[in-house]
Specification:
By secondary structure, the chain is mainly β. It has helices at 23-27, 126-133; strands at residues 5-9, 12-20, 45-47, 54-56, 64-65, 71-72, 98-99, 101-103, 111-123, 137-142, 151-158, 161-169. The strands form three sheets. An eight-stranded mixed beta sheet has the order 7-1-2-9-12-11-10-8. Strands 3-4 form a two-stranded antiparallel ribbon.
Amino acid sequence: MAKPIIVVLDGIESSFDHAKVERTKLYGSRRRVPLDQDGQTCVKSALTTDGLYLLQTGMTAQGYFDESGRWLQKNQLVGIGADGQALELKPSTLGAPQVLEAVSPTTVLDFAIDAVYALDAMTLDAALQARLAAGEVFSFKFKYSADFRLDTAFLLQNNEGIFCLVGTPISPSWAEPGKISAVEDEEESADELNFDMF
């Protein structure tokens, strides 16, 4: 069983058991199963470009190769930041208290939500319970398993219960109504394909 999600508000901890909300659990799923002429289930495979190996589903997720073709285990990989420096591996936040910060409910709209967890309170501070019931939204740092970056999670409540939404920030580019987007014409390169010549 996974460790609980533990959050802290005004120095008081609350802990939650959690279960991931998945589309298949809500709506069920259908799957097409290809069969061969004998009625046996077909297995998806891919042939490598050199024709030497047949790769089945899941085989490419077991490790990586470097530029020289040397096999690397996952624990040998290092995260590199935009500045080219190695990133520090951050541990899972499960079981570790995370401080809550009250945010505007519209803040959630600035994030691409990657996962939703239904929470079951193990211990719930009365003050936090009241504020969630009043519609307040809280953010905290979250990572299910060790990784090189922490995601942002939101704690909120609706008529169905208490939920944790985990996401990454997005920065959409907006165009104003009635404003024409102008692109400067550049001289055609001699190498560019000119469709007028067809």
